[in-house]
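Subgroup meeting minutes
Present: P.N., E.W., G.H.
Scribe: E.W.

1. P.N. recapped why we're keeping a running log of single-chain structure predictions: easier to compare across weeks, and new members can see raw inputs and outputs side by side.
2. G.H. added today's entry (301 aa).
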Amino acid sequence: MNYLEYFKSEISDPNTNYFIFDSKGDAGIGDIDFEKYSWETNMYNKAKSGDLIIFRRPGSASETKKFYFYGAAKLGSIIGSIKVIAILDKPYPFIEHIHMQDLESFAWSFKKKGVDWQHFFNQYGMNQIHKIDFESLMNMADGDADFIDPEAATEAHQDIQQGNYSVEDRLGTTKIRSKQNAFSNKVKDQYKVSCAVCGIKTRLFLVGSHIVPWALDKSIRLDPKNGICLCAFHDKAFDWGYFTLSDDFKITTSKSVGDDIVITNELSKIDGMRLAKPTVNLPKSEYLKFHREHIFEKFLN
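Output recorded in log:
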């Protein structure tokens, strides 16, 4: 379901206002991603129940060390008077996170951007934006939205934060895909949205690749330490055992890749290289060992 269907009644309501809220997803300060958000009304008192918000992860709490947008929601009931807590309705995790570098040419309506991002967003972390800003950001993030279940994606996002990495097999295809997408976004963020082997940064070519395949261990399916951001070529090569990694992330390529000279040449370029490390969640050595023993060179012709 795309955002126009999901938020149809709110977007068609002329009384709906639109905001960007900064969130570190820190339950200790009263925030839980897609569940509740707190603020002090003496610092900011423009938002009301029924308004729509987009979440921004500030650079200070971001895996990439730069801000990104990661989802939207509707403000539900707001409890309190000075220190308030808003219960969030209709959570909508983004199919693709929108990173700072994606917005260099973005045509903001609510405010003119200077040469950089300094002082662009309110220091308090709450910004009212125009409807056209909201819709433009949502269009950037929506991707293949018809195949994503917002509820399942929200659950996976929160499970990853809480260290619950298990996903059951009995879920339907759309729910499985939604949870895989949440994992992929997390992995891509921690590798600064670039292939850990070749450095490709175009998101269309990037995958949050599993070290231990999804099908083989349901207890670690959402574990960010079981993921590496790879481009489509290196993801396929890794999945099918054309190369593997040592515990210190050195790449070893197979010498038995058939007679495809292009693949042979491409693999020769990376043999002996070291994988770029993520900003957080280094791959677990036990997962890398599993790949070396059970995936590397096991599926080659």
